[in-house]
Design goal:
The protein is mainly alpha-helical. The protein contains 20 helices and 5 strands. It has helices spanning about 5-20, 45-60, 65-70, 85-105, 115-135, 140, 145-155, 170-185, 190-215, 215-220, 225-235, 260, 270-285, 290-295, 310-340, 345-355, 355-385, 395-400, 410-440, 445-470; strands spanning about 30, 35, 75-80, 240, 250-255. It has a 3-stranded antiparallel beta sheet, with no helix packed on it. Strands 1-2 form a two-stranded antiparallel ribbon. A hairpin with a 4-residue loop joins strand 1 and strand 2 (about 35). Helix 10 (about 215-220) crosses helix 11. It is globular, with a radius of gyration of 23 Å. The N and C termini lie far apart (about 60 Å).
Amino acid sequence: MKIAVGERAIIRAVCVLSLIAVSAHPALAHTTERAFILLLPTGYYLLGGALAVAASFLILLAVPAAPLKRAAGARLVLAQLRVPDETWVSLAAFAVLLALVLAGYLGSRDPLANPLPLAVWTVWWIGLTITHAVFGNLWRSLNPWVGPFRLLRALAGSPKAPLSYRLGYWPALAGLLAFAWFELVSLAPDDPAILARAIILYSIVTWIGMALFGEEAWLSRAEAFSVFFALIARVAPLRSEPAANGNGRRRFELVVPGRALADLPPLPPSGTLFVLLTLATVSFDGLNKTFWWLGVNGINPLEFPGRSAVTAVNSLGLVAIWLALSAAFLGSIGIGRALAGERAPFWRTAGAIAASILPISIGYQFAHYLTAFLVNGQYASIALTDPFALGWFASDDRMHRVTTSFLTHHAGVTMIWNLQAAGIVVGHVVAVLVAHLITLRKEADRRSVLLAQAPLAVLMVAYTLFGLWLLSTPAAG
């Protein structure tokens, strides 16, 4: 088989990049609660991660389209299982949520002793999100608002929704932005009583939306977390769908991670901006306490004054990083379209490629929150044993049962840092694969594929460097 000159050049480039990437050596590190601060040069990690993403892009270009599509479509059926009824699971989840809200009002005022903040910020937002990226859409059954709504709707005679839904993803976008502001900027997101009130308010809004527009319409487009988890679940290597024989059974399959994203129809502009916001929020969460960010805003990072002093600047910063990321992404799509001479509508192309951002979002989520999950997860398990602060465990006993020893010795620090760095790099590599598969839908020649993807690949490499820098740079708190 003859190999064209261009293909030989690509193969040589891949070999060189791969040799450089595997030649990187680990750097010693020490840790803060948020992440690891590497005291020795981080160039090996940054260079190795960036080259891994670049190499994956070049390797995919060198592979012929037909075998790549066949390999990406491979699946392995694992089992067919009967699953519990979604309504009953949702009612059970609602009972748990109700108990947690009561604990928010009646339990300890300490966020590390009250189960509500720990359940929301650690178990749900960190743990359940990562779980979705592995096991698929569990929120479809666990959503605590569906069961009560279906029960009340049945008691009311199953009335038809009075309004037709035509709002796109804008309500979900507004909901996710409000949630991000509450988590990252507001003064007391960990206060149990404030968090309980926020949950009650959001529950009421969700039920009103479902009643006005219908359950399926509201949850699939307007309810922020149903939209978020459904999108993240498409990254998962485990996929489930109703079995052919029905009867409440589902077929579970092992698939290529991110493959379901390539089959996602193009998102409208509101959906594209929603996906970009998922990455911008976790990126800003890593940025807003760095020495660099505080220094830019005239704050001594060694004397951090608290959230009240940075509320305004962080509000602007959250929106600014979202707009900057959106501009960079849309700009890379525009440049790629111009280079490849593409004629399809701009937003259709952007809405299709936007799905490739989701693996990066989940990679950042994993890397950024890993240490917090390992530590606060222990507090959560303890708080759940005494949710209403009835004195079942003494405070000293609580503290002795929490360990951070894995953050204080070299082996633990090295392992966690490598997991964090791997999370970011793997997320970007999967994103490159998804973007490539989406581009191949057009049945374009290899040159057009290269030109269309090159600007986005450059952006992904740059964002890999940014993410690894966020992990390694000093931060306050």
